[in-house]
Design brief:
Its EC number is 1.1.1.3. The chain has 359 residues and is α/β, with parallel strands linked by helices. It folds into two domains: 162 residues, Rossmann fold; 186 residues, Dihydrodipicolinate Reductase, domain 2 (2-Layer Sandwich). The strands form two sheets. Strands 4-3-2-1-5-6-7 form a seven-stranded mixed beta sheet, with helices on both faces. A six-stranded mixed beta sheet has the order 9-11-10-8-12-13. Helix 1 links the parallel strand 1 and strand 2. Helix 1 crosses helix 15 and helix 9 packs antiparallel against helix 10. The longest helix is centred in the C-terminal third of the chain and has 18 residues. The radius of gyration is 21 Å and the shape is globular. The chain starts with a strand and ends with a helix. It binds NADPH dihydro-nicotinamide-adenine-dinucleotide phosphate, ligand LTNE7NMQ and sodium ion. The site of NADPH dihydro-nicotinamide-adenine-dinucleotide phosphate has 32 residues, from helix 1, helix 4 and helix 15. Sodium ion (NA) binds next to helix 8.
Amino acid sequence: MVVNVAIVGVGLVGSEFIRQVLTTQSKKIAIISVANSRNFLTSSTPLTASWNDDLSSAGPATKPFSLESFTASLATSKATYSTVVLDCTSNESVAAYYPTWLEAGFHVVTPNKKAFSGDLNLYKKIKQLSNGQKGSPLVYHESTVGAGLPVINTLNDLINTGDKIVKIEGIFSGTLSYIFNNFSTLGASAKPVKFSEVVSVAKELGYTEPDPRDDLNGMDVARKVIILGRVAGLDLTQETVQVENIVPEELRNASPQDFMAKLPEFDQHFENLNQEAVQNGQVLRYVGLVDPVHGKSSVTLARYPASHPFASLKGSDNIIAFTTERFPSPLIIQGSGAGAAVTAFGIYSDILKIAERTQ
Ligand SMILES: NC(=O)C1=CN([C@@H]2O[C@H](COP(=O)(O)OP(=O)(O)OC[C@H]3O[C@@H](n4cnc5c(N)ncnc54)[C@H](OP(=O)(O)O)[C@@H]3O)[C@@H](O)[C@H]2O)C=CC1
Ligand SMILES: N[C@@H](CC=O)C(=O)O
Ligand code: NA
């Protein structure tokens, strides 16, 4: 079955998703609407490669964006096919709108972590509205953890088949993986590099959140820990996860531009932390833990010896280790965990699952 897709947010990830759908000439997906924070465009025929020009404020069918007018424009699209609203923003107000879309019978797919890691009542409402009963709308959010890596899907499979989670531990941030894999190294591969320079490169490569402090303050990893914990049945919130924030205090309230400009002043601070670890034969890695057994889920800058799998990670790879009753030797998922291509892949495969399930 074909599904209509209406996209809110056509930045790095949203536009890469469109590129992948158009270049693969998908017969299952018709992109009928695109929106950014200023404009939207909804069409009765699938959008083509000129979607970006069509969306510009000069386009004849372009309208000023609001969640209400965008949603109203989709009302007739459900008549023929199911419609998926794809949220590719990182915005909280957009996330808070999912219940409205679900109540109107739209499916929701998103890489945006806000709805699944913020207000617990919003999360429960979304779960209740997409409860899997016949005819209920579907919600997929694979790319919220580990980008396109099959993390949420695997966790759901473990739980739905009756396994018990002992712990989920890993490096869940492509940005922090890239930063520490390059900054904190041992032996022959060790080459001196400044912390602020590695942060700039991670930003240029599209791994960071729009403000890299949302990665460095641990919040992005904490959100992923909360999402995995909730999928595993824990009522985790930002208050119940202990987070080590590594943004220097002096830079926490600076503007995003000032933050990047002043970060080099703190290079020596990070170098001291690194040297302390290296002198003990260890590297620094930023690690998230979901711990249902002891109730102590956390995000910490930890130290690991060279022999540990977290120490030999490369590039922006994520690594996620599920220790369960059935997998006392953990089930490990590893690979590229950030960047537009792999995030869009996760979204694309989520939407294909909806196309299959709504046949
Ligand atoms: N980059 C990555 O590796 C990964 C990203 N993600 C998630 O993917 C999502 C998208 O990230 P990315 O593409 O990098 O973000 P960008 O900042 O590149 O794009 C965001 C888009 O959302 C639009 N937008 C923002 N606020 C609103 C709003 N209130 N209403 C409508 N549109 C809005 C922006 O419009 P405008 O241009 O007008 O501001 C822009 O088109 C985020 O949630 C991120 O956390 C998840 C996994 C990995
Ligand atoms: N900034 C995030 C992007 C994906 O969620 C990361 O670095 O992992
Ligand atoms: Na994933």
